[in-house]
Amino acid sequence: MSVKNITVLGSGIMGHGIAQVSATAGYNVVLRDIEQKFLDTAMEKIKWSLDKMVTKKKLTQTEAEGIYSRIKPVVDLKEAVKDAEMVIEVVPEIMELKKKVYAELDQVAAKDVIFASNTSTLPITEIATTTSRPDKFIGIHFFNPPQLMKLVEIIPGEKTSQEVIDVIQEFVKSVNKTAVLCRKDVPGFIINRLFIPMVHEACYVRDRTGATLEEIDSAVKFKLGFPMGIFELADFTGMDVIHKATTEMHLRDKKVILPHPTIEKLFDEKKLGQKSGEGFYKYSGDKYERIALSEELAEKFNPIQLVANIINNATWLVSNGASDIEEIEKAAQLGLGLKKPLFETAKKIGIANIVKELNQLAEKNGEFYKPDPLLTSMQ
Ligand SMILES: NC(=O)c1ccc[n+]([C@@H]2O[C@H](COP(=O)([O-])OP(=O)(O)OC[C@H]3O[C@@H](n4cnc5c(N)ncnc54)[C@H](O)[C@@H]3O)[C@@H](O)[C@H]2O)c1
Questions:
Q1: In CATH, which of 3.40.30.10, 3.30.70.1060, 3.30.1390.20, 3.40.50.720 is domain 5-181?
Q2: What is the pLDDT of residues 328-344, one digit of tens each?
């Protein structure tokens, strides 16, 4: 199985970036959307990004032109997939829409074409079974923006063949990204499994301790090595994305997440974060803005309950056969920008202290907080 021609279905935020990254690596790319106007916007964005790279001397003008010319915008689905060996689907995160898209695609794509979905949270195995080729169906989760983010999670479904996993791993390497294999199709895969529950937990921690947003965020940044605070990161990601991921993950398994009402409230009030001018914080303009966090503020807050939450989920991923500690650390470093390994931070606090904290939380707040057996055994 060798891949030279790729079709990217969906030219939005992620699709145009994935098309650009693939064409940069030398692949011939067809970019498909439902209307020409979406493709025009996407091609303009790609041109803008390539021009910027030329200005920064990361590409020559000739290279940029070569990359641009390898991306062909096409509206007709049949035409778009006629030469493809692989289709990367990047349509909106709506199960019914994805299923409809795959039903159409399955009819027109040749039998041996690989289907790779960029879904962030939807179950790979379930989407795969709606096609005639679950063995050739796989999750390929790029992060936003694909041009810059190094991490790609690869998620095989129950029936995905080893050959397809190998092809996708090779592909990810060829586009100069680092692949982390999420060996089981678990809700949230690796990064969202760590990140989304932590945003909710941060809201509960705020309720329980009365700490300010800035104190919590400072501790997350300076004590846990996050590139920014957890509320700041939530605002940066967008409450729409977090709300959607929460809903999908919770739908799949009630135990993976304890939704805090603040997320739904902010989402309903259209306080989506940076992009709408307000989320957990208020922003003055539409320019990307950082919150003033400091080591002094960090000293005012003990982040043990947040570490307990993320490390409990990390060990859950290991004990459920989805990943291992080394891969989780790699994913957290590249996907969340963590500067300190998670398990190192946990050991510094003391695994026994974390287990004790989780048991106390479980007593007061229920089963959700129970420490994973692997975490308990690590004391
Ligand atoms: N935005 C993010 O931060 C992010 C990060 C990682 C993964 N994802 C995932 O990537 C996928 C796409 O997200 P997005 O943010 O790029 O969405 P988006 O809304 O920006 O883009 C989706 C595009 O798909 C097009 N589309 C709709 N139906 C189509 C069809 N039948 N064929 C081809 N194109 C079609 C839409 O017109 C739109 O241009 C989702 O599964 C999402 O969960 C998003």
A1: 3.40.50.720
A2: 999 999 999 999 999 99
